[in-house]
Amino acid sequence: MRNRLARLAVMLTALAMLAATTAFAIDQLSESPVELVRQTVKNEIGPGTGNTKTMYVDRKQTQHGSQTKLLVETREGNAEMTILVDGKPLTAEQRKAEDARLSELAKNPDELRKRQRSDKEDAERTERIMRALPDAFLYEPDGTVPGTQELGKPGDQLVRLKFRPNPKYSAPSHVEQILTGLEGYILIDVDQHRIAKIDGTLGKEVGFGWGILGHLDRGGHFLVQQADVVKGEWELTRMTLSFTGKALLIKSINIKSDEVCTDFRPAPSNLTFAEGVELLKKQADQPITAQNHNPE
Questions:
Q1: In b/e form, how buried is each residue of 158-172, taking b as 16+ CB within 10 angstroms?
Q2: What's the CA gap between 179 and 131, in Å, rounded?
Q3: Helix, strand or coil for residue 15?
Q4: pTM for the predicted model, two decimal places
Q5: Whole-number Å distance between alpha carbons of 259 and 295
């Protein structure tokens, strides 16, 4: 599975307008909706065929403000450097501290291994969610929309499937439990068998550990979007999360974030983490038009 799929947007009104103009017929599909999802999930979690690495700009907005980072994929994990805070460039003192942090991290193999373990655990949880998609939901065809530069692949048709919880599905662990309350839609590139977008909303409160570990409130929403950005390499282009709830019946959960990835460019395929850090430092001194991108 591609690295950042568990961490995909365009406005819903725009999608509705696009759906009304497409001439692609859903009955042209050679497989049923659930089989399309099953084959797509199989392709998503399978090993990638290429070795393309990318560098890109990541802007994340939360209730505490925004951070814009420049990231590059390396063979030892992503290297990332903060370049803007609340839309403003770092001060000389902040830049010096950021350079020092990255240089120290590049020389610390124990910390790199710790990051790799954390990334692996995130990927495993995401894969469990992905594997559950065909069985956790009931799917209904709902037209098509054309792919764009930020959504799927330009020129490809994206099949839209509405989904709702499958009453026969039993979540094997708390990781998949959130799926039992989700409803929404998924966009699939039928030519590539790739997920272009998942937009889901909690139609009911979802508890964890019989409610003892906590719950997420009804109305929670997430959106994950990805696209073919460089030489057939699909990457995350947007992720939006908005959830409230309780943890251990006491601590409040309040997650609100909107993350947009732009300005994708090819990067050397065999970078070490230390080499990635040096590349980031050089690139951070050059103008990047997407640094000031505002997803709103």
A1: bbbbbbebbeebeee
A2: 12
A3: helix
A4: 0.81
A5: 8
